[in-house]
Amino acid sequence: ASRPQLASKFHLKFFLHQLTSFYPLESMDSLLINGAKSLSQAVGSLFASAGSKLEDVGKDPKKMAQFLTLFLIAHFTLVTVVVGGMFFSEWGRKKLKKYWRLSKQGPFFRCIVWFFNLFVRLYVRLSGERLVVDPCNCKPRFTTIQTQVNRIVLHWTAERSSKLTNDSYELQIWKKTKGESKGRPAPGSTTDAKEARWETCAKGEGVVTCDCTDLEEGAQHKFRVRTFNSKGQSEWTEGTFGTRLRPEANGGWGPGYTWSQSTKEVQVVIIVKADSKGKDFQVTCKGGRLSVVEAGVPLVDGELWRSVKGSELSWSLGHGDDGGKRMFLSLEKMEKTNRRANHWQCVVKGHPLVDTRFLPDCIIPSGKMPDETEI
Question: What is the pLDDT at residue 360?
Fold first, then answer.
């Protein structure tokens, strides 16, 4: 049974309990029979007199309108008096809170809300622009961001300029040039030319989510969003979000290094100078932070994606497939990752992420560190 039905059964049991406390059980039958007879006679006489009057009222539309108006006024007055009286007692306030909580779950409350919203929309449409407020102080902000290989799902929120009107939102994305796609900065241009490079992704009333697809993999994309209506618009809110990398060798790349992983460990290959020697490096991994420094110049420095076993840290120098010199760093995971959702998405937080949806649940090591080492 629903909560309103349970509440009705509870009140019925409470009423019967109070009734039986004043009258003995053996007299309940006669009491109920006599009460039912008197109640039926009173209701019958009331409806008989009201029926004769309603027949006269129904013949005249003006009298019918007056009757309905008086009926609504009397009903509203009675409800106001009863509810107002309940406010003066703690028991009444508790009952009102309980009834309000239960009524919000029923169909009548939902119908009232629907009619109220319909009335507000009609009133706003008939009143024109008088209820619209300038949304200059309703600057939106990004809240939820989901990223994949070539897809970014954005969500934003903003304060409403008015409780009686709905604001509209516009989301734009910065169109990259060929130079920017390859990582080179774009040449300077005029303000009009820069504005022309913004392309609208989503625009409309109440639009607070946009699914941007067919984006460049593993790249940073700039977005901006604003609130607007017929009275004006707010300032732009800009944000830069990156798509994920498609995994290569169950890993990806970062600034100056590539990495791969298995269920138990992570292998990092760092580009170093051709004449580098083991004594030139300082490699530390403490407190979940990895630091690789060559002759005072940091190569990799930042917080690791997950915890590792610091005592198992090992590294060596060797040559890569292209003949260049590399540092091979091995990190043993603190916890094995047997599910694709638990695999590492990057080595250092803040570096490009890989899309773990393309990884298997169990990753078997593909190889070992090279035998040619120089520590």
Answer: 86
Quick one: CA torsion of 177, 181, 186, 189, rounded to 10 degrees?
A: 20
Q: Is the pLDDT of residue 187 over 60?
A: no
How many CA atoms does the CB half-sphere of 184 hold within 13 Å? Answer: 7
Q: What does the pLDDT read at residue 374?
A: 40
**What is the per-residue pLDDT for 312?**
63
Among 120, 134, 187, 181, CA closest to 162:
134
pLDDT at 51: 56
